[in-house]
Amino acid sequence: YCNGCFTTNDSILYTWLDGSNFSEKIGACQSPEAPDDMRIFYSFGPFDTMEPGDTLKISMAIIGAEGVESGVHNLRDNAEQALKLFKRGYKTTASLPSPKLVAEPGFRTVTLRWYPSQAQSGGPGPATIWDDSNRIAGAFPPDHWRRINPPCDPPGTGTCSQGHACTSEGVLPGGRIHEGFRLYRTEDPNNTTPNDKSWTLIKEFDYADDSFNYNVGVDSVYVDSNLVRGKRYWYAVTSFGIPDLTLFPRPAGGFDSLVAPGVESSIGANATRVDLYFSAAENAGEVLAVPNPYRVDQDYTFENGGWEGRSGAWNENKRLIKFIHLPKRCRIRIFTLVGDEIAALDYDAYQLAQEENNPQLENKGEIEWNLVSESNRALASGVYIFTVDALDAGGGKTGSQIGKFVLIR
């Protein structure tokens, strides 16, 4: 639009001022060959009268994105957010906290409980969050739960607690925007934080008294079943809100409307790890080595249902087997067929629970071994013998077992 920008020729400058030099009233001076040139030129007019002291207010938003209409925070979504923020008087949309989440592992199950009245951070829960500028929430009847008992005090003074903006009559616009919860799960093997793209939506819960979403009803308990023992699971419950409506007056009359989707809390806010361990045995006769046989030509990484980490980070040092259904205190010894001892492993579930400050670990009955001898040498193909001695608190033997596993290279 703006060829020859920033000239000093008065006649050209005037065509800029009255807008006759442009087919559009706002012209971008950025050259396609120079994308780092961020100059912007505004042209307004002509004006029949302009009195001293008259002002013209201009609002401008510069947005960017990685994609135009696809992906997270694309250009279209960001432009809509900029328009919405402008019409709200630059007041951001009220954010919803993720609820407090507790996970209780069982036998091939995990029971999840979350608390709508309490946030994971310890503050108020999502059901209490009020958005002064949400037109859809404000359109509900005064006796609806989204509108009753608004935090305005004292009535009629126009002042409100909790930073809300009431009218001079003491009426609080907007309403409570919470609509429901979304439950996510991932089987990411990471120890600290799962990959953001690995989450899968398991179930959605939403209030059944409105026209938003599926109206299945809100719950705060879910039992995830038919899980695989020996695997790691992550869970998260987010809060999401009702849509928001923004109106834009047309110059010729009427309005254009922009309906923005409701906000959703962060998945990572209450991400909870559950290691569904193999349980401990009452004696030494139930111990197994898995997988058995162990084949080096098989893939035991996370992507193929194994426990040797992600395939992209796998190397020879990640090979391992598990001894499962161990007694809570025991000593495992591995031998060759001719009786040479290769390695010895000590296991104490009680000590582990104390070190990790997690009483549930007292029933953990598994330990990993990296298929390397005590001299740090990789094992050759063959049959190997293992023994398990169950121990009491003083280290005395209470039972024993002999087993074997096969390594195929």
Break the fold down into its secondary structure elements and pairings:
Blueprint lengths: L9 H9 L7 E3 L11 E3 L32 H13 L11 E7 L4 E10 L10 E2 L3 H4 L36 E2 L1 E9 L13 E7 L14 E4 L6 E11 L2 E6 L5 E6 L11 E5 L11 E3 L3 E2 L25 E4 L4 E7 L5 E8 H8 L9 E4 L12 E10 L5 E12 L1
Parallel strand pairs: 15-21
Antiparallel strand pairs: 1-2, 3-4, 4-9, 5-6, 7-8, 7-10, 10-13, 11-12, 14-16, 16-19, 17-18, 17-20, 20-21
Describe the structure.
The chain is mainly β and 409 residues long. 8% of the residues lie in helices and 31% in strands. It is built from 4 helices and 21 strands. The protein has helices at residues 10-18, 75-87, 135-138, 349-356; strands spanning 26-28, 40-42, 99-105, 110-119, 130-131, 175-176, 178-186, 200-206, 221-224, 231-241, 244-249, 255-260, 272-276, 288-290, 294-295, 321-324, 329-335, 341-348, 366-369, 382-391, 397-408. The chain has a 5-stranded mixed β-sheet. The radius of gyration is 32 Å and the shape is elongated. The mean pLDDT is 85.
